[in-house]
Amino acid sequence: MTCSGTWSRHSRNRTRGPMKILLVGNGGREHAIAWKLKCDDPSVEIICASGNAGMTDVAECIPVKAEDVRGLLGYAERADVELTIVGPEAPLALGIVDAFREKGRAIFGPTRAAAEIETSKRFAKTLLLGAGIPTATASHHSEPLSALRAVDGMGAPVVIKASGLAAGKGVVIARSREEAERAIYMMLEDRVFGDAGAEILIEEFMEGEELSLFVLTDGTNALPMIAAQDHKRLLDGDIGPNTGGMGAYAPVSIATDSAMSAAMDRIILPTLAALRKEGRPFSGLLYVGLMITESGPRVVEFNCRFGDPETETLLPLLTSSLLDPIYAIGRGEKLNVSTSLQWSGECAATTVLAAHGYPDTPRKGDGIRLPAPPKGIYLFHAATLRTEDTGELLTNGGRVLAITGTGKTLEAASKCSLEFAERVAFEGKQFRRDIGWRDLGRSAGAA
Ligand code: AMP
Ligand code: GLY
Fold first, then answer.
1. Quick check: CB of 248 below 6 Å from ligand 1?
2. Is a pLDDT exceeding 90 seen at residue 4?
3. Ligand 2 and 308: CB distance under 6 A
4. Distance of CA 428 to the CA centre of its chain
5. Cα–Cα distance, 31 to 34 (Å, whole number)
6. Cβ neighbours of residue 275 closer than 8 Å, sequence gap 6 or more
7. Is the CB of 274 inside a 6 Å radius of any atom of ligand 1?
8. 166-193 as b/e, with b when 16 or more CB fall inside 10 Å?
9. 230 with 244: CB under 8 angstroms?
C-alpha cells in the first residue's frame, strides 16, 4: 500500500532513538492507524495489543488484551513506551487514560469521565440538552409504564435506546406504538442488553441523512477531518440488522462547508466547552454522529474514539501527518490548529468483509484466500489470525477485512473496492455491493 503522506514534523527530541508507540486494539481501525503512523514517520516502532494477522507488517503484536489496563500499563513501563494510543471504547470506559496519566505516561484518548459522552447516553443527552446543542429531545426511564407514557406523548415514529453500551445494537426505531411497547419490555423486563438496558431513553425521531465527523482535540481546540458516511445495516439498500459498520465512503456531498462549519460552531466547540465546564475536559478523538436535517446538523450520538470502518476510509486520504496532532494531544500539549489537516482530494470507499453469521453469531476459523491488492487498494485486516504451524490465514471474528478503494471519483473508488472484495475468498463471506449508494445515486440523478 503506497503512502501519500508528508513526513512528520512532530517536534520530538530525536536523541531518544526511535519512538515506541503502544497501540491498543485489534481491528481494521487500528491497522489503518498503525499504517498511517508508519507513513508519517517510518522510524516509529509500533507495538499493537493485541493486533491481528495483517498488522505484523507495520507493528509488533503482543498478546495483551485491550481491556487489561494493568497489563498494558505494566508493558508500557517495562518497554519504555513513549506514547500510547487507544483504539476501542472498552479500555477508555475502564479508565486506561486515568491509569496511565497517574503514572505520568503520555496517552491519546479521553479519561473515563470524559468517555461517558459515549458510554452513558444519559450523561451525553443531559449535557447536550443542558447546553442547548441541537439533538433529539429525550427522557430517561427505568419503568415500562413511564416509558410508554413518554411514547404516547411523542407519537410514532419514536426511538428507544438502552442507556449503556450495547455494542451498537441497543437502538430500536419504532414505527408504531406496538413496536415501541415491545422494545420497551424487551429492554427493561427481558434485559436483552443486560444492565445496559436497565435504563432506557425515549427519543424524538430525527428525519435526515447521517454523517460521521471526527475531530482531533486537546479539549479546547479541534481539528476536524472530512466527514464520512457509514453503512450500518448488513444488507444492500440499508436493510437487515444493524452492524458495527459494513462500509463507508468519503468525501460526502451533503457535508457542505456550511453544514460542517455549523457542526463545528454549534455542536463540536460547545460540546467541548460543556465538557470542560463539567470538569471532564475531553482530549483525543471525538466522533460525532450527525443527522443532517432540514434545520441543519443535529447530534445522533457521540463516540469517544475513532470510528470503524470510517478510519479505514479516511486515513488513506489524509496527506498531512496524523502523528503530529496525536503526539501533541497524547502529551497534554496544545493542539496546533493554525493549519488544517490536508487531504488528497481523491475519493475513498471501504467495503467490509464480514464472517458467516455476523452480526449475531460470527463464525471463526474459515480459511481466507487473499490475492495481492492492486494499486489504489488499501487492505486493512480486522478479525484475522495466522496459524502458527502452517501460516494459514483464518477468519477470527465478525468483521474480517476492510478494503478501501481510492480514485478520482466515488464511482471509481467504490468499483475498485468492490472488485477486490469479490476476489477475496472465504466460506460464508458477507459484504455489501452498494457502498456510497446515496452519493452515487445523487450524481447519477444530476447527470
Ligand atoms: P446510536 O447507537 O445512538 O448511534 O443509534 C444507532 C442508529 O440509530 C443511528 O446511527 C441512527 O441511524 C439511528 N438513530 C438513533 N437515534 C436516532 C434518532 N433520534 N432519530 C433517528 N434515527 C436515530
Ligand atoms: N462505524 C460506527 C462506529 O465506529 O461506531
1. no
2. no
3. yes
4. 25
5. 5
6. 114, 117, 127, 219, 281, 282
7. no
8. beebbbbbbeeeebbbebbebbbeeebb
9. no
Residue 195 above 70 pLDDT?
yes
Indicate which residue's Cα is closest to atom 3 of ligand 2.
Answer: 307
Q: Which ligand is nearest to the CA of 136?
A: 1
Residue 354: the pLDDT is: 98
Q: Which residue's CA is the closest to the ligand 1 atom numbered 18?
A: 205
Joined together, the cell numbers standing for residue 34 give 498503525
User: What's the pLDDT tens digit per position in 205-223?
Assistant: 999 999 999 999 999 999 9
Q: What was the pLDDT predicted at 16?
A: 72
Is residue 168 very low, low, confident or very high in pLDDT (cuts 50, 70, 90)? low
Strand partners, 298: 291
- Ligand 2 close to Cβ of residue 310 (< 6 A): yes
Query: Could you read off the pLDDT of 234-249 as tens digits, one per residue?
Result: 999 999 998 999 999 9
- 42: preceding bond cis by omega (within 30 degrees): no
Tell me whether residue 220 is exposed, middle or buried, using C-beta atoms within 10 angstroms of its C-beta: 0 to 12, 13 to 18, 19 or more: middle
State the Cα–Cα distance between residues 382 and 398, nearest whole angstrom: 9
